[in-house]
Amino acid sequence: MAKDVYLHPPLTDEDVAAREIGDRVFVSGVLYTARDAAHKRLVDLLAAGLELPVDLKGQILYYVGPSPARPGRVIGAAGPTTASRLDPYTPTLLALGLKAMIGKGKRSPEVIAALTRYKAVYLAATGGAGALIARCIKKAEVVAFPELGPEAIHRLEVENLPTIVVNDCQGRDLYEEGIRAYVCRAS
Amino acid sequence: MRQIEAQAIIEAVKQAAIAANYELGEDLKAALAQGEKEEESPIGREIFRQLLENARIASQEKVPLCQDCGVAVIFAEVGQDVQVVGGDFQEAIQEGVRQGYREGYLRKSLCHPLTRENTGDNTPAVIHTEIVPGDKIKLTVVPKGGGSENMSRVFMLKPAQGWEGIKEAVVTTVKEAGPNPCPPIIVGVGIGGTFERAALLAKKALLREVGRPNPDPQLAALEEELLKAVNCLGIGPQGLGGHITALAVHLLMQPCHIASLPVAVNIQCHASRHKEVVL
Fold first, then answer.
1. Which residues on chain B are in Cβ contact (under 8 Å) with A146?
2. Spatial contact of B89 and B68, defined as CB atoms under 8 Å apart
3. With an 8 Å Cβ cutoff, are B64 and A77 in contact?
4. What is A4-175's CATH number, 3.40.50.150, 3.40.50.300, 3.40.50.2300, 3.20.130.10?
């Protein structure tokens, strides 16, 4: 039965293992942003045996490239970007102890398997709700790769950012199961 | 010959780019409100609620509806009795995009295809110009997001595949896109012409107001049939399951070669942004 849950990173294995697809998860605390270019940098650093600019253990990555902040505002629009583009990098980061990712859209079978293996979850935020989600972001600062502009890694402080568990660590997928309940049966 | 200053074009494009990104059209708001009432899935209804709230916040606080402020696609209808003075027509449009994306705090999302280096000012815009009768210039600024554009397809069908083939192409495109293009979506379908014309028709089809039926009753009936088929997929809002995957399917059709049946499917996310100005 889907529940409302409030999570604050850093997350433990227990925080994650209790989650089921369809749970509404409200995230508060610190998140790190990363999209295509930042992921490539992180994985390249690891391949070169170098240290990462952020410790991902227990953390949540938010796949977002915000629009610029108007003066006096924390951030511009900040909704999730398509997660599948980051699939090739994700298992490597999960192996470092990353506990959750927030994005939108399907994940690859490799990522879904890695969620089970490393005990982590994939959360979907509402794609295209950039203004609504921006309201949950109380602080934003660039902590790595500033030259990447909107693709730089930001440290965000958020309050009750609304998400839904799409892939849990039992290998379930809400994108598959949710559709099954509503697909028209052949007559 | 009526003269229009290039500066007026710059200003019009700039204002339209900003307005399109902050203000969701009334047609979309009405469609989302209807969706909130009619969607059976509880998660789906919650998504509709969030999207309506998002539109309110964007408008009130002058924040873009979506952080992906898109490629600026511009449809320009230039009256044949107009002379543009004081500058270059195409460059005026580019400058309007440049200024609008800078002054409106819109995300610059264009980059070199290979090095991926950002162009820094969201140019070049993609401009489609038509010469039409009259002495006015109509500019429609369409910020087109990457997530939904990535899920779009062109099919060169065999004529024998006919309507069933077209229907299958549309349904398959939406099915494969699943949650990725941010449903509820609008589906633009271009049928006929040539390879590139079909794609342009599909994009133009997206400009029609949601909820306004196709003026051609035959195409209106086909749109209904496609909408029903697409919504039978069960994808629902954000792909989390539901009966409303698409808010509308819009068709544009024109004759094609006897050997061909080009079909393009352009997917548009729920943040269907377009702003029209007439000079």
1. none
2. no
3. yes
4. 3.20.130.10
Contacts of B31 in chain A (CB under 8 A): none
Residue entry with tokens 């409302």: A4
A39 as an active site residue: the answer is yes
Question: What is the C-alpha separation between B222 and B227, in angstroms, rounded?
Answer: 9
Q: Mean pLDDT throughout B213-238?
A: 97
CA atoms within 13 A on the CB side of B221: 3
**Predicted ipTM > 0.95:** no
Tens digits of residue pLDDT in B194-209: 999 999 999 999 999 9
**Do A128 and B62 count as a contact with CB atoms less than 8 A apart?**
no
Nearest CA in chain A to B55: A131
* pTM of the full structure: 0.95
How would you class B262 by CB atoms within 10 Å of its CB: exposed for 0-12, middle for 13-18, buried for 19 or more?
buried
What residue of A is the nearest CA neighbor of B272?
A: A128
pLDDT of the residue at A150: 82
Domain boundaries, chain A: 4-175
- Give the strand order in the sheet containing B246-256: B153-157, B261-268, B185-193, B246-256
Is pLDDT at A25 greater than 60 in this prediction?
Answer: yes
Partners of residue A84 in chain B, C-beta under 8 Å: 180
Q: Where are the domains of chain B?
A: 2-20+65-144, 147-271
Tens-digit pLDDT profile for residues A129-138: 999 999 999 9
